Amino acid sequence: MRARDVTLPPDVVLEALRPADAFRCAALEQVLFPGDEPWNAAAFREELRAGHTYLAARIDGELVGYGGVAVVGKPPGAEAEIHTIGVDPAHQGRGIGRALLRGLLAAADRLHATVFLEVRTDNDAARTLYETEGFVVVGLRRNYYRPSGADAYTMRRQAR
């Protein structure tokens, strides 16, 4: 399955994340977020059990990226929160993160949900990505990430 409005590298496939992917996601979390309580495999499995939308980006069957969104409520008051997006450092800069984000936003858009997320204040690349996809900074959460104590911006994209 390919996201319709996303230009993916030809070797990348987006599909639903599976419980069997939880260990690979947790391994990537250790690499991507080592100082901020990276999620373990059980956390990913619990998100899937809860029915949240999680996507996997694969190259030749190998998971190279993942992302998840939770939606609460129903239109017209539905809200969504991007829980996580991660891409293997060896595959960053190829549009995979943007493709994952757009896939998650499409799930929120089906319910006309306003979308929120938190991003580290020092993560300029991620913040820029989110801004180009319609997010604006609406708040600051001091010491949001643990145990590093890094601050986070809260960002919002209006319902579509």
Automatic annotation (TrEMBL):
Keywords: Acyltransferase, Cytoplasm, Ribonucleoprotein, Ribosomal protein, Transferase. One of its GO terms (molecular function) is protein-N-terminal-alanine acetyltransferase activity. SUPFAM superfamilies: Acyl-CoA N-acyltransferases (Nat). It comes from the Bacteria. InterPro entries: AcTrfase_RimI/Ard1, Acyl_CoA_acyltransferase, GNAT_dom, YpeA/RimI_acetyltransf. PROSITE patterns: GNAT. Its EC number is 2.3.1.266. GO terms for cellular component: ribosome. Residues 12-160 form the N-acetyltransferase domain. Belongs to the acetyltransferase family. RimI subfamily. This is Ribosomal protein S18-alanine N-acetyltransferase.
